[in-house]
Amino acid sequence: MGLDISEQMLDIFRQKLDNKQQNWKLKQADANQVLPVPDSSTKVIFSSRTIHLLELEHIVNESFRIADRQGAVFLIGRIQRQPDSARETMRKKMRNLLHEYGRSQRQK
């Protein structure tokens, strides 16, 4: 089962899934709310590029609630870009420009 707050992101993911296999479900859900997943039903919990945006206590409690009592795995994905990638080059340029104009970058 895949969850995302954005229906548009779920549509993109649907396009990438193999339509011949129907053993998957995608649901729109806010991970800072109760997840639409039954208690003790999950063997693998995976988060990619979002876990740091969620309320820590809530997501830990929800993970324990949905994890299979016989054991589950919690995987966290992380993207690491090359220092010379286009995105990193633009990010550095933006930081330098902001500094030149006496501005600071957006605070999280």
Mean pLDDT: 87
pLDDT under 50 segments (min length 5)? none
Strand content: 5-15%
Termini Cα gap = 29 Å
Secondary structure category: alpha/beta
Largest sheet, strands/sense/barrel: 2 strands, parallel
What fraction, in percent, of the residue positions are helical? 25-40%
Quick one: how many beta strands? Answer: 4
The radius of gyration is 18 Å
List the helices and strands and how they pair.
Layout: E1 2-4, H1 7-16, E2 26-28, E3 44-48, H2 56-66, E4 73-77, H3 86-100
Parallel strand pairs: 1-2, 3-4
What are its keywords?
108 residues; alpha/beta; two-stranded parallel sheet
Describe this structure in words.
This protein has a two-stranded parallel sheet with strand order 1-2. The protein has a two-stranded parallel sheet with strand order 3-4. The chain has 108 residues and is α/β, with parallel strands linked by helices. It has three helices and four strands. The protein has helices spanning 7-16, 56-66, 86-100; strands at residues 2-4, 26-28, 44-48, 73-77. The longest helix is centred in the C-terminal third of the chain and has 15 residues, at 86-100. The two termini are 29 Å apart.
Task: Please summarize what this structure is.
The protein has three helices and four strands; from the N terminus they run E-H-E-E-H-E-H. With 108 residues, the protein is α/β, with parallel strands linked by helices.
